[in-house]
Specification:
The chain is an alpha+beta fold. The protein folds into 2 domains: 197 residues, Bira Bifunctional Protein, Domain 2 (BirA Bifunctional Protein, domain 2), CATH 3.30.930.10; 57 residues, SH3 type barrels. 26% of the residues lie in helices and 28% in strands. It has 7 helices and 12 strands. Strands 1-2-3-7-6-5-4 form a 7-stranded mixed sheet, with helices on both faces. Strands 11-10-9-8-12 form a 5-stranded antiparallel sheet, with no helix packed on it.
Length: 283
């Protein structure tokens, strides 16, 4: 399959009537699309508006969570970042990563027929290997979000990965033996993200006073898409690390984990599966 560049001229007709329509910027090579989007969102003369999309064919210093880098082979993957300006509290920001994960899953199913697993809060897996990651960065003023950058990296047509990633990462091509249209995947992703983002804003602006009730539909959608949400024996790399059985999400999107010492919340730490013990907490 001959791969098209992800240029605005080809994407624009496919994302009409979304917040991203008319706001797509394409680059052959950048250091990091998140850095590019962040600089644009903070622009001194004219800050990027909501829905601006920054897409690169290659990143020289693609970023993951923490100090991790994202391997960004030229024209093999999808490397994009979007600028969002949701009128939400800083405490609700995790929902942006979670709705992005749901949107990614929807896009994958629409284009490839696959239903990848969501590993809370920001990874998508095929056969327990990561092929897609989300990096959400926010700028807050007081307790409100001024803007958020949602960065997404997808291993699409990579035929090989660096040796240090082979045991934990994969690509759509490595898993299926097929090449996939990056253009169709990107368009499907942006349309799904638009849909999920609008649903989030409706929940945030709902007159219902209970946060549990406001976010219930999104919470249930995320939990239904992830084997990590409930009944998974995991280790959380946070506050010295702890292990237990996952017990769903709370009203802020944090992952509840039942440990031998009681219920704990995974706030932002990496979550990894463990072999299930018969005497584990929650059994």
């Amino acid at each position: 399959m001959e791969q098209e560049l992800l240029v605005p001229e080809l994407l624009a007709p496919l994302v009409r009537n979304t917040i991203f329509s008319g706001h797509i910027h394409h680059y052959l090579q950048v250091e990091s699309t998140n850095l590019l989007a962040k600089a644009a969102a903070l622009g001194a003369s004219e800050a990027a508006s909501e829905g601006e999309v920054f897409i690169a064919e290659e990143q020289t210093a693609g970023r993951g969570r923490g100090s991790h880098q994202w391997y960004s082979e030229r024209e093999a993957g999808i490397y994009c970042s979007v600028v969002l300006r949701p009128q939400i509290k800083a405490a609700d920001i995790l929902w942006l990563s979670l709705i992005a994960a749901v949107a990614l899953q929807d896009a994958m199913k629409e284009v490839t027929g696959l239903s990848p697993d969501i590993r809370w809060p920001n990874d998508l897996l095929i056969n327990d290997k990561k092929f897609c990651g989300i990096l959400t960065e926010v700028h807050t003023e007081s307790d409100r979000v001024h803007h958020a950058i949602v960065g997404i990296g997808i291993n699409v047509n990579h035929r090989a990965l660096p040796a240090d990633l082979e045991s934990t990462a994969t690509s759509l091509h490595l898993e299926t033996g097929k090449e996939w249209s990056r253009l169709q995947l990107t368009a499907s992703l942006l349309k799904a993200l638009d849909r999920e983002y609008r649903a989030l804003l409706r929940a945030v602006n709902s007159p219902v006073p209970s946060s549990t009730a406001r976010f219930e539909s999104i919470l249930k959608r995320v939990e239904a898409r992830s084997s990590y949400a409930r009944g998974k024996h995991v280790h959380v790399d946070e506050n010295g690390g702890f292990s237990g059985i996952t017990d769903g999400l709370d009203t802020r999107g944090f992952l509840r984990v039942r440990t031998e010492q009681g219920l704990r919340m995974a706030i932002s730490g990496s979550v990894r599966p463990l072999a299930r013990r018969t005497d584990a907490a929650g059994d």
